[in-house]
Design goal:
By secondary structure, the protein is an all-alpha fold. The chain has 14 helices and no strands. It is globular and about 50 Å long.
Length: 421
């Protein structure tokens, strides 16, 4: 007779199998690659966190946060002009780019061992950010090719996000333990090993076929996204900007209230929990509503949460607001990714994802800079972002409902290699 522990172990194995294997062997390989990549990112963050951002006065913390925000968006100054052009001209190279990015992250992680407090920290951290963004873009481009039946793209994106949340939590715990045992070098060595494993597994991913009749139908030099994707991109960027504003507003308010590092950590953990909730919620939503209403709901949720927090602020309210922000961003981002993957031809997805990731990163930085640069009264900040999110929702819905003029150019449909909606 099976013991309770045996039954629990069997249930866990079934859940893990369903998480990774649903969607076919291609999705399984992509999911395991994503798990290794997330582990590498998390371990690097654990290794460098104490070096860069903790135990400084508030004025210096504002400078450090501003520098961090610039570092997060700076990689796109490199990626934007180069990666999109490479993937546009040679879409069959997407898998190769993913593998090369993983190898580069391994080498940079190793290069920081014993040098995490030297001048090399900042160029190496910049390189790691660039290559991490490259991985995210190429992974999103490969997802439709990795599914056996590439129709439930939003659900597949959500499953990858949920895997990232689970693996990131485990990797953070392992990284903290390694850091306590041997210092920052421990997590960096583990990050290098995880990145090498991501490179090895990445070689098993499906590779896009060369576009048919490219010589007769050359790729336009300017990427033209379908109208629905363009509008959803702008609305999702609004959710991301609101998230940046609210998270930094709350973080500096907690510092002003003499909150400690555990409280700041709880705020970030609540935001991560919200994204995890979204990754579990979105597959159910996808079966009931299209992607555009999900983005509308994300804007509405942001506005309501900001208004409520303005009336009942406290540490618990801040955590609930951060969790709600994570849910809104997760719903909007996963819905947008599915919409883009379903409507943009395979040979243009690399450039499309490069553009969208750039837009979202810039939106987060633009939203986060005001509360970072100057102290903003909490109630004023919450009410402002609530009205901004509500306005963005109304504009998005009104634009969606407005019919195109009869003489307006119609979006070109994706080729028959694009998954069905």
């Amino acid at each position: 007779m099976p013991t309770r522990g045996g039954r629990r172990g069997g249930r866990v194995r079934r859940q893990v199998h369903a998480l990774f294997a649903t969607g076919g062997p291609g999705f399984r390989d992509l999911a395991v690659t994503q798990a290794c990549s997330t582990s590498a990112d998390t371990l690097v963050a654990v290794a460098l966190a104490g070096t860069l951002f903790f135990s400084v006065p508030t004025a210096e913390a504002r400078g450090n946060v501003a520098l961090y925000l610039l570092l997060t968006v700076a990689p796109f100054a490199v990626i934007g002009p180069t990666l999109g052009r490479i993937l546009d001209r040679a879409p069959v190279a997407i898998r190769t780019v993913l593998v090369v990015a993983a190898v580069g992250r391994a080498l940079l992680s190793v290069s920081l061992v014993t040098r995490a407090e030297s001048w090399w920290l900042f160029p190496a951290a910049f390189g790691l950010l660039v290559l991490s963004r490259v991985h995210a873009i190429t992974r999103n481009s490969l997802l439709p090719l990795a599914l056996d039946e590439p129709r439930a793209l939003v659900a597949a994106n959500a499953r990858l996000a949920w895997i990232g949340v689970l693996v990131g939590a485990v990797a953070a715990g392992v990284g903290v333990g390694a850091g306590l045992a041997v210092g920052a070098d421990g997590p960096l060595v583990l990050a290098a090993l995880a990145a090498v494993l991501a490179a090895v597994l990445g070689r098993r991913l499906p590779e896009p076929e060369a576009p048919r009749a490219r010589s007769e139908q050359p790729t336009p030099s300017r990427l033209h996204l379908p109208r629905a994707v363009r509008l959803a991109q702008l609305a999702t960027a609004g959710v991301r900007a609101a998230a940046g504003f609210l998270l930094l507003l709350l973080a500096f308010q907690l510092r002003a209230d003499d909150a400690g590092l555990p409280d700041i950590g709880a705020l970030l953990a609540a935001s991560g929990l919200g994204f995890a909730v979204a990754s579990r919620l979105v597959p159910s939503l996808e079966r009931r509503i299209p992607e555009e209403p999900m983005v509308v709901a994300a804007l509405s949720l942001t506005a309501v949460a900001a208004f409520v927090a303005a009336q009942w602020y406290g540490l618990a309210a801040a955590a609930v607001l951060a969790c709600t922000i994570g849910i809104a961003w997760g719903v909007a981002k996963l819905a947008f990714d599915g919409l883009l993957q379903a409507t943009v031809p395979a040979d243009r997805r690399g450039a499309a994802f490069t553009r969208s990731e750039t837009v979202f990163s810039i939106a987060f930085v633009l939203g986060a800079l005001p509360p970072t640069a100057v102290p903003i009264p909490l109630s004023l900040g919450l009410l402002t972002i609530g009205f901004a999110a509500l306005t963005a929702q109304l504009v998005y819905v009104a634009t969606l409902l407005r019919p195109l003029p009869a003489d307006a150019p119609r979006d070109v449909a994706a080729d028959d290699t694009t998954p069905e909606r």
